[in-house]
Amino acid sequence: MDIQSVGIVGAGQMGNGIANVFAMAGFDVLLTDISADALTNAVALVDKNLERQVQREKITAEQKAAAMARIRTTTRLADIGPSDLIIEAATERETIKQAIFEDLLPHLKPNTILTSNTSSISITRLASRTDRPERFMGFHFMNPVPVMQLVELIRGIATDEPTYRTLLAVVDKLGKTAASAEDFPAFIVNRILMPMINEAVYTLYEGVGSVKSIDESLKLGANHPMGPLELADFIGLDTCLAIMNVLHEGLADTKYRPCPLLTKYVEAGWLGRKTRRGFYDYQGPVPVPTR
What we know:
It is a single chain. By secondary structure, the chain is an alpha/beta fold. 44% of the residues lie in helices and 15% in strands. The chain is built from 11 helices and 10 strands. The chain has helices at residues 13-24, 36-55, 61-69, 94-104, 123-127, 161-173, 189-205, 211-221, 228-235, 237-251, 260-267, and strands at residues 5-9, 28-32, 71-74, 85-88, 113-116, 136-141, 150-155, 177-181, 280-281, 288-289. The strands form 2 sheets. It has an 8-stranded mixed beta sheet, with helices on both faces. It starts with a strand and ends with a strand.
């Protein structure tokens, strides 16, 4: 199938990044969210990021203007139904994702491909709530989307070959690299990454090291560009906890038990950068460790 139009559900951190890369690659983008303010902020952020690229001479002003013209917004979920490809990028809660797909069903074209940007939830299970499990896949972008090269492609048990090949071609047109993953909890990247972050939180919880010493150790000792606690704040501690819960429940192995300190931070509303407090406090000019 030749994909021309893309509908994106969710105008948050992932949704606006996905809109950015699709618009730059020449696709017509319709971005939807229940919040009109979120849509306004998302478009403004895309504009800001593209302007930064213009200033760095990575793209021309004409390319930026063309990309921005390809992005439209709506608060009506039904409006994206006629899109060739739909990417759900809502919050990492299965019940919300299921409700979105069920609400979309009456408005879809017969050949529309449905995808989820979920970082951990079963694709087979999400697909089973739709009328087209054969045209349903996991389409997992990494954060920040404009920068990160990888896209995980996850087939559900019913996903057909034409759908898989179509999304491979889309990834190629975006100038990114696809990695195919089986439909197991958290797929590849987060199956490896999240337990590392969770272990870093345990290291803090048990008093083995401070926030600063843990992050510095991994940056200088393992050549990681960000420390694990800094990265957790960037991802969002609620998202990290949700993925660890999926791993713990889906694989029934105690090694995936979320650290109680991670749970406590989420219960406190300390979710990282997006709430300006997590393992670091972001309210001042320089992030300060909270422990």
